[in-house]
């Protein structure tokens, strides 16, 4: 009997510690409830106070979150400054147009004042993104927390892992599946292009030199192309900013998809969504409302926020988001 008892309690302890390790290794809702009870409120209050005056930052933040998660997981590696001789993600081609770093730094300072060394930069990015999209009238989603910050930021990895605006459907699918996202996530998350801007340089080859013969991309509506050339992107190297969802760049709505189906998406990667039957019919379903954009977008964002997160004792809680401790 005694042996059996010991056996059982041994097994119980074993199972229990395995269970603990499993749960410790995961994000959880309200991770800071005990360690920093006001953390989420501090983020939300800051966002609610400042985003209405600077709504374009919502776009900057969601794009930052995306770029963070696609390279080494959502570990705030995107926030690290390059340290000579290492070139960080910030110096990668797709990051040259990122904004909002000081917005994150300001929130992080408030959190450091409240509970030093507790709240990760990666969680600040995830929370501030969600809260700012809500301010733009977009969907809300759950942001389980407990992400820890990475210690490595590598420019080459960012150039390789972040999809390019010139990507075709196959390349997009590969970039997404590399981080565990499928082609429905691809359609939904591309919907974030309903807010924000692009510089002409991100797509001007489609207007002026698509195949290198001074031609235009036939997949881009020619009337729209003519309009862009006349009024916005006047030459191949013009750096003017263009709204991706003209007329409602600060409102989170279905505008992007309406645009894409009119062949007016700015990037080849936007146009590529029409080249696959599954994704193009999913866009129709979103536009018709048989799939609810907000509900489905929220699910994909939660999924993106979980990509390769560091938890438990992995990584660190950075004190300053731009440098490792
Ligand atoms: C599917 C592959 C994607 C590609 C190739 C892509 C590419 C780009 C490019 C080239 C820009 C313009 C940068 C500039 O010239 O300033 C941009 C802007 C933006 N992207 Fe994407 N993107 C993709 C997916 C996403 C995802 C998944 C999100 C978020 C969930 C996102 C959110 C944004 C936002 C909000 C902007 C506007 C940023 C601003 O206003 O500063 N994109 N994207
Ligand atoms: C990180 O880089 C930014 C931009 O170059 C700079 O303003 C900031 O002071 C740097 N932060 C640290 C901690 O070095
Ligand atoms: C950065 O990543 C690339 C590609 O994975 C790798 O070849 C390179 O060695 C890395 N650089 C550093 C400094 O770790
Ligand atoms: C898509 O792009 C990749 C990489 O540039 C290329 O290897 C592939 O042939 C392209 N696929 C199609 C169907 O055009
Ligand atoms: C168009 O692209 C080709 C091939 O990349 C290049 O040789 C040519 O100089 C480009 N034209 C302009 C106007 O940049
Ligand atoms: C941009 O293009 C125009 C003509 O299209 C040219 O005059 C100008 O020198 C170019 N600027 C740069 C920085 O390449
Ligand atoms: C995709 O749709 C087109 C036109 O509706 C059809 O011809 C083609 O067979 C479809 N392809 C697949 C793989 O279902
Ligand atoms: C925001 C940011 O850090 N941008 C950098 C991106 O890369 C270019 C070129 O390396 C830098 O000049 C920018 O400062």
From TrEMBL:
Substrate binds at residue 163. Keywords: Calcium, Disulfide bond, Glycoprotein, Heme, Hydrogen peroxide, Iron, Metal-binding, Oxidoreductase, Peroxidase, Secreted, Signal. The record marks 63 as: Transition state stabilizer. One of its GO terms (biological process) is response to oxidative stress. Binds 2 calcium ions per subunit. It holds the Pfam family peroxidase. The active site is at 67 (proton acceptor). SUPFAM superfamilies: Heme-dependent peroxidases (SSF48113). Transmembrane segments: none annotated. Heme b binds at residue 193. Its main location: secreted. Residues 1-25 form the signal peptide. It is an enzyme of class 1 (oxidoreductase). Residues 26-325 form the Plant heme peroxidase family profile domain. GO terms for cellular component: extracellular region. Ca(2+) 2 binds at residues 194, 245, 253. CDD domains: secretory_peroxidase. Its cofactor is Ca(2+); heme b. Its EC number is 1.11.1.7. It is found in: Secreted. Ca(2+) 1 binds at residues 68, 71, 73, 75, 77, 89. Removal of H(2)O(2), oxidation of toxic reductants, biosynthesis and degradation of lignin, suberization, auxin catabolism, response to environmental stresses such as wounding, pathogen attack and oxidative stress. These functions might be dependent on each isozyme/isoform in each plant tissue. PANTHER family: PEROXIDASE 25-RELATED (PTHR31235). Belongs to the peroxidase family. Ascorbate peroxidase subfamily. This is Peroxidase. It comes from Parasponia andersonii.
């Amino acid at each position: 009997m005694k042996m059996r008892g010991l056996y059982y309690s041994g097994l119980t302890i074993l199972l229990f510690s395995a269970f603990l390790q499993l749960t410790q290794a995961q994000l959880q809702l309200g991770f800071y409830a005990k360690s920093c009870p006001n953390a989420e409120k501090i983020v939300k209050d800051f966002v609610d106070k400042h985003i209405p005056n600077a709504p374009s930052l919502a776009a900057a933040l969601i794009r930052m979150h995306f770029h963070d998660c696609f390279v080494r997981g959502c570990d705030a590696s995107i926030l690290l400054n390059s340290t000579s001789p290492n070139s960080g993600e910030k110096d990668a081609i797709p990051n040259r147009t990122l904004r909002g770093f000081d917005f994150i730094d300001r929130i992080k300072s408030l959190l450091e004042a409240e509970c030093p060394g507790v709240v990760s930069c990666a969680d600040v990015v995830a929370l501030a993104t969600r809260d700012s999209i809500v301010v733009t009238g977009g969907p809300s989603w759950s942001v389980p927390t407990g992400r820890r910050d990475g210690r490595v930021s590598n420019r080459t990895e960012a150039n390789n892992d972040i999809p390019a605006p010139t990507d075709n459907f196959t390349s997009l699918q590969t970039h997404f599946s590399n981080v565990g996202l499928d082609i429905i996530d691809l359609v939904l998350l591309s919907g974030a292009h309903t807010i924000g801007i692009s510089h002409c340089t991100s797509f001007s080859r489609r207007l002026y030199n698509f195949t290198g013969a001074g031609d235009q991309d036939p997949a881009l509506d020619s009337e729209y192309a003519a309009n862009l050339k006349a009024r916005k992107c006047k030459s191949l190297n013009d750096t003017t900013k263009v709204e991706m969802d003209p007329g409602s760049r600060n409102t989170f709505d279905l505008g992007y998809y309406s645009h894409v189906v009119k062949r007016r998406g700015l990037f080849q990667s936007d146009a590529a969504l029409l080249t696959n039957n599954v994704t193009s019919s999913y866009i129709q379903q979103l536009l018709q409302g048989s799939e609810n954009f907000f509900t489905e977008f929220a699910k994909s964002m939660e999924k993106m926020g979980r990509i390769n997160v560091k938890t438990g004792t992995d990584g660190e809680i950075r004190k300053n988001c731009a440098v490792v401790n």
